[in-house]
Design goal:
Strand order of the largest sheet: 1-2-3-4-5-6-7-8-9-10
Order of helices and strands: EEEEEEEEEE
Helix content: under 10%
Number of strands: 10
Radius of gyration: 17 Å
Largest sheet: 10 strands, antiparallel
Structural class: mainly beta
Distance between the termini: 32 Å
Strand content: over 45%
Number of helices: 0
Length: 191
Amino acid sequence: FGDDAINANEIFVPVRMRKAFIKAQKGNGALIFGQTDDIINPLIPSTIDFSIGLTYGNLGFWRHQLGYEYNIDNIKIQASLNRAYKDRENVGIPDFQTRLSYNSEMITAGLGFLYGLEDSTGSMPPVDAKETLKVMAIGLDFKLILAGIVIKGEGYTGENVGDYFGMTGRGQKEIGGFLDAGYSVGNSTIT
């Protein structure tokens, strides 16, 4: 998953792994272990930009996690404990994410929540730093497919979401999101 001794920024390590996880499913439930998409705001904007919208509206990323999901008809309930990055590892407890979503062939809509703690005495503490900061966010996401047209977007409001690639970082309250439109041709989408 990356060696901090080689490179302090584990997002850009020499050997990159986006997703590597095990999903053990039984009935309507599934246990997930490994590195996969964040539960909060799981969509990725259609872009050729390597950063996939990080720091300008796309809150989700890939993270080490232990999660559980349960499907009831078109409703999915998800929860996970996620590894915190960088200075937040010092707190010693994982982040918590949860999401409730409706999923069908035409529409997906979700409401997610994130909670964690951050050690504010790290490399870039805010001016009014306390020892531990709360990391919190509420996110909405949707994807609509109608006659080949794909419209998707996410929005969030949160505080101290810098390690989730929010727009401002520590000690800040923020609102962000993105809106994306494209046309689906077979298995490809043109944006």
